[in-house]
Inverse folding.
């Protein structure tokens, strides 16, 4: 198994401004969305499973904040991301700070756009923060359909905004002479400000995984 970790640091607007902009957050169980590139089996039958995790920073790249950028700049930045995804050609991509249609980041689905532009057949997005202006969370893109998807919002943790995770269960068959393995793959975004909050969020993850008995990535 090969695993890539990619991230880009960024500077956010003040927590005060963000708190004003965000309306009430609700937990959403997302649908598994069918991308435009479906042409594969429901089982990954490669000996090596390649994964990539990437914080796409709302499409802002290294700018101060995405709300300061025109939609065309957001599209250009995500176009560069899609080029990277095509180059690495991972089986599964985990995304964080991944936006749904939001006034502050171009008013389009960033995960759906990346799936289309980089050739992924299936994708899912969890909106851990959802308001009239801001809508973002975690997501997964895959070359095969997930057998199960779980979206989880961590408890509110003011003054920082809500975080959460997306879980996708997939079938992987590295050995054609053995049955496929059910694997849980999670895209996780933890609170950046407090260790105590992160510990509670990790406890939430462990509670979800406790009775699933699958290998976890």
């Amino acid at each position: 198994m090969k695993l890539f970790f990619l991230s880009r640091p960024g500077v956010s607007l003040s927590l005060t401004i963000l708190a004003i902009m965000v309306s009430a957050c609700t937990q959403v169980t997302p649908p598994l969305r069918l991308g435009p590139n479906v042409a594969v089996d429901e089982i990954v039958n490669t000996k090596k499973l390649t994964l990539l995790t990437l914080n796409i920073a709302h499409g802002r790249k290294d700018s101060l904040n995405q709300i300061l950028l025109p939609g065309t700049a957001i599209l250009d930045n995500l176009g560069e991301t899609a080029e990277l995804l095509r180059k690495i050609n991972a089986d599964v991509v985990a995304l964080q700070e991944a936006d749904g249609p939001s006034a502050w980041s171009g008013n389009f689905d960033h995960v759906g756009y990346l799936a289309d532009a980089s050739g992924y057949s299936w994708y899912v997005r969890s909106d851990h923060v959802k308001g009239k202006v801001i809508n973002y969370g975690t997501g997964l893109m895959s070359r095969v359909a997930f057998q199960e998807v779980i979206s989880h919002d961590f408890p509110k943790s003011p003054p920082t905004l809500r975080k959460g995770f997306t879980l996708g269960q997939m079938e992987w068959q590295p050995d054609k002479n053995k049955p496929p393995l059910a694997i849980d793959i999670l895209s996780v975004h933890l609170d950046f400000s407090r260790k105590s909050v992160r510990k509670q969020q990790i406890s939430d993850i462990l509670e979800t995984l406790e009775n699933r008995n699958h290998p976890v990535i």
Observations:
- The radius of gyration is 17 Å.
- DSSP finds four helices and ten strands in the chain.
- The longest strand covers residues 122-130.
